[in-house]
Amino acid sequence: xxxxxxxxxxxxxxxxxxxxxxxxxxxxxxxxxxxxxxxxxxxxxxxxxxxxxxxxxxxxxxxxxxxxxxxxxxxxxxxxxxxxxxxxxxxxxxxxxxxxxxxxxxxxxxxxxxxxxxxxxxxxxxxxxxxxxxxxxxxxxxxxxxxxxxxxxxxxxxxxxxxxxxxxxxxxxxxxxxxxxxxxxxxxxxxxxxxxxxxxxxxxxxxxxxxxxxxxxxxxxxxxxxxxxxxxxxxxxxxxxxxxxx
Length: 246
Ligand code: PGA
Fold this sequence. Notes:
The protein is an alpha/beta fold and 246 residues long.
């Protein structure tokens, strides 16, 4: 269960949040935090309990004259173990392309970070019934050149129209796309779709978590707004843990 803080939380409120949840010991659920970059150095100093953390982005190069970027090597040196890649806000606001993400995935693997590759269609693409095509392109453009994939990779399906809007994909819509993603991955590489965790993201909250995470094709969540409040995130973690237990 991944909390994407985006560009929110100052050091005090971030520490209060993670330490409020540090006693949680979900049996089956791995909790991950994705703070904004300047907080990464603090995360290893704070009591996270069993939770782990990562960055919201990395650059494709290990070091050099790339003002404003952060390297996978630095994230790893600060204790991070994961990185989000290709979040829709990175794609739409900062022009990130699926082809660029391929190089970032390689950089993550080189420095022992597990990439969480985010994919998903816009409202316009869904309304014109192009969502499968868009998702397939996003997957192929980022992964085709990386085959065979032998390093850890997590996918996150986040329909752009459901992010921060309060509109969640219906369970049927989410499951249908998760199954599609598994098929595309299996076609790329035998067994890849079956062995890859696929998270759902987009207005996940304590009210809809149960119906989403009880689906066997939805392995976890990428949670934005509801991960900023300890009570809400705690409830979502518990619900997910019960779903995995059941
Ligand atoms: P949201 O954000 O839960 O606030 O919709 C999810 C995300 O963007 O990762």
